[in-house]
């Protein structure tokens, strides 16, 4: 037994299918006594009431060419408001993410701009020898080691992971 679920993709097509039924001309004469104008007005009413659940492109494909634009005004007004609302929400989200990105960049620049003071008394914590004139490496926590000690430490750590 199937149930209608408006959140599913097939559930959103229900209104489009209903509009097709209302707006397509029957192959056989209408024996129910309902005029095409009444069906078209019912279709326009469905459009205005359920505009958020109906795909706009599908609606434009279904609508007869003789449909007056003025009768579609309530539908397009809601659709355009929703589109503008989504656009504004995405702009706010984008600006929040951009702000976070700038904060992280500022923090990164601050971390990188730290001054390193090396003198004859600076000792490498890995090999316990003075840094002297050797090429230093600075870890993010501010620790300063010899370049070769850094290579040995990172290769040992990589071997332990395997």
Q: What is Rg?
A: 34 Å
**Content-based structural category:** mainly alpha
**Percent helix:** 55-70%
How confident overall, as mean pLDDT? Answer: 82
Q: Kindly, what is the distance between the CA atoms of the first and last residues, rounded to a whole number of angstroms?
A: 54 Å
Q: Give me the number of helical elements.
A: 5
The tally of strands reads 2
Low-confidence parts: none
SSE sequence, one letter per element: HHHHEEH
Order the strands across the largest sheet as they lie in space. Answer: 1-2
User: How would a textbook summarize the main sheet?
Assistant: 2 strands, antiparallel
**Shape, per Cα inertia axes:** rod-shaped
Strand content: under 5%
Characterize this entry briefly.
It contains five helices and two strands; from the N terminus they run ααααββα. By secondary structure, the chain is mostly helical. The mean pLDDT is 82.
